[in-house]
Request: fold
Amino acid sequence: MTNPEAEQAQQAEHADHPHQGGADAASSTGGAGPEADAGTERLEKAVRAAENALIEFEIAVETFRVEVENFSRLHHQRLGPMYARLDELDAQIAEATAARTGDPEDLRRADEARAIVMPMPGVEELFQGWIDSDGLSPEGTAMLNEQPVQPPSRVRPGEEARKAYRELVRKAHPDLAQDEAEQERREAFMVRVNKAYTAGDTDALRQLAAEWEAGPTEAERPPSRSEELYDRLEWLAARKEMLASAVEELEGSAIGAMLRMAPDDPDGLLDEIAEQLLAQVSEREARLAELLAQPSPEDGGAAAPVGARTAPGTATGADPAPGAGADPVPGAGADPVPGAGPVAGEGTDGGGGGGEGAPRDASPNDEK
Reply:
């Protein structure tokens, strides 16, 4: 039984030496008999094996491509809003931090974070004027219709271009054809002539004139069966290389890398990523709420980073808590003011500063 890999390797050697392969094919087909038939039969078997292998490979590639595309669409649909929310929260946190510190580096980070969540550019900006809200621009329409994209430099082409055009029309006009095949050839040629004249391309008209003078090319000799089979093998090999490159590109993409993390359950992977993003959103929201709850410098508070504790005696714009470095409160254990006597109520049963236990001012009569 023929080994497809061995046959493909053998055909690859022939592909490396196409002239030699063509000579072998010519010699085998040129001779009569069983040898040529046997060689052609081996080539046909190799082609069939390569075709079957390529079909299976294409099925695998297309299956993977569909999974990558579907995962990408669902990832964008289900997780896109979460990513957008994270970007917005990061921008707000950076802006709040920059507003409190005024640090140039924080301001730069805030600008960068806000730029990430800026709205998408409009259609005109994306397509650089080729497409606007009304559809294709005149230049875009001309490009699709294979017409000159830029307007012509002048209304009438130059004299040399007009002369060359007239001579070509007189020689190559389709009405001068004697049969249908010749008429079709002339019509196709005149399409090229008219296009060159519309563009005012004198050089192109000269080349077309030289081509017409050279006459139609002779019909090529049809390839032999062996040559067709060799060409088919080369095409199959090139097709497989192209598909292998496509697979490599898909596997190297971000979505392809995600799919490799969970090849058996890609839908479960989406759910897992969604849970992680929700946790990140909650963490960012808590962070932002903590930052906004702190007094801002405009309110008289100190510009401190989030999470920093206020130093004793530092003004924050709020009433100081007892014992947090503010003025001593009567009865709070603070040192008495010199010369003010004992603190009211200290060592007495009275509770107020104006009760029976209140100190009396010293006077000369007391000393007596």
